[in-house]
Amino acid sequence: MSQETQPRMKQFDKVAWVITVVVWLLVGLMRRVKIPVETDLSFLAGLNALFNTGVTIALLFALYFIKNKKIEAHRKSIYVAMGLSAGFLLSYVGYHFTNEEIPYCREGTMKTLYYFVLFSHIILAGLSLPFILLTFIRGYFLDVEKHIRLSKWVFYVWLYVAATGPLVYLFLLPCR
């Protein structure tokens, strides 16, 4: 990484933190504030699951490509994962600002499993967001050493969050 890219990377880091704080605030608000709309946006729940499924697939391709030293294919896969994640985020916020929460309707072991998956998904999604962005920025600016150091754990958390998103949707299907 060249010295002249260092200041630009720091600016992107600040943007990543601003995005993170805005997302955290929106997620905190969307459970308290409902925006009345005339269009039924409940279909966004399924779209969210599709976005997350796409992210999961893109991340698995990215892992395959980097393990096989296909850097450009890895980079493109990560761009796809980031784009789908951005689409997910917009859809997720749109859904939750316009729809009531759906309570889980089953009992027993399935309920315990659901809440374990849900809570771990939510907590890890919130905690991982800034690190996903910072890891992406390190890769974008070719700060390879820091990118690799961060991605060794950020990748697997992101993959877990992406894969458990559709699981939460599937858990709730009988409750809709």
Structure description:
It is a single chain. The protein is mostly helical and 176 residues long. It has one domain: Four Helix Bundle (Hemerythrin (Met), subunit A), CATH 1.20.120. The protein has helices at 5-30, 44-67, 71-98, 109-140, 144-172. α1 runs parallel beside α3 (71-98). The longest helix is centred in the last third of the chain and has 32 residues, at 109-140. The chain is globular and about 55 Å long. The protein starts with a helix and ends with a helix. The mean pLDDT is 95.
What's this model, at a glance?
With about 180 residues, the protein is mainly alpha-helical. The protein contains 5 helices and no strands.
Look at the structure and give the mean pLDDT.
95
Q: Kindly, what is the distance between the CA atoms of the first and last residues, rounded to a whole number of angstroms?
A: 50 Å
User: Which segments are poorly predicted (pLDDT under 50) over 5 or more consecutive residues?
Assistant: none
User: Percent helix among the residues?
Assistant: over 70%
**Rg from C-alpha positions?**
18 Å
**Total strand segments:** 0
Which CATH top level class fits?
Answer: Mainly Alpha
Helix and strand content put the structural class at mainly alpha
Name a few traits of the molecule.
176 residues, mainly alpha, Four Helix Bundle (Hemerythrin (Met), subunit A), 79% helix
SSE blueprint and pairings:
Elements: H1 5-30, H2 44-67, H3 71-98, H4 109-140, H5 144-172
